[in-house]
Amino acid sequence: MRKSRFSEEQIVGVLKVAEAGVPVAELCRREGISDVTYYRWKAKYRGLEVNEARRLRELEEENGRLKKIVAQQGLDIDALKVVLSSFPKQSAFPKRCFRMGILARLFIEGQRPVLISL
Description:
Elements: H1 8-19, H2 24-31, H3 35-45, H4 50-85, H5 93-99, E1 104-109, E2 112-117
Antiparallel strand pairs: 1-2
Helix pairs in contact: 1-3
């Protein structure tokens, strides 16, 4: 995600100045932002204090990291399904691994599954 030129303090300050009665067009010209940016900030940060705005940014960053983790886990699950589908139906190997609680990742090298314990 692109880093903003403006900190949370600056954004909250601009919104407070606008609430004090300065016309939006003049404020935007003075701060060097577009009207669209001002209204986007207003929709996102209206009524927040500086510490709350910082917390909001931190939560958004954490949410992005967690979404990446979930996506990676989905890919891992799909890879495990592909590997497990290559075993014969009568094979007890995958069941034993999961029953014993072995933390393992299965990778495919060519057509042959390889078990790597972590």
